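Each field is set out as follows.
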Amino acid sequence: MSNRFTSVPAVPTNTELNQQLLVLIENIKENVELLTGLRDEADAISKAITQGQVRVNNLPAQDMRQLSAKGAGFTISGQDVVSLEDYGKLLLDVQTLANDLAFTREVLNALITQIKGTSNG
């Protein structure tokens, strides 16, 4: 997708503009050219990111919606002990959550790379 920026015309230098206004307009023109990439800045560090440049897809719904472990257990000699079945569910819940987090971090890092302009793609 291409940007919809157009060139910025030169600032008029006729005598009807006072010097302060001329300086203001020239600075605004330079900033617009930097943001749109029209100023031929060598490293393009000032160029703005536009919607068409973001190539990260939306995240799908996370796999973990709710805990399957319910805290079920037993009391043995006055001590609460979790059931083996519930303990197994909790382990799976934690692993699912860790996988969701890892995927989210991967997408976030890709987005950060694109915004910084260091993407190889």
Residues 57-121 form one domain. The longest strand covers residues 73-76.
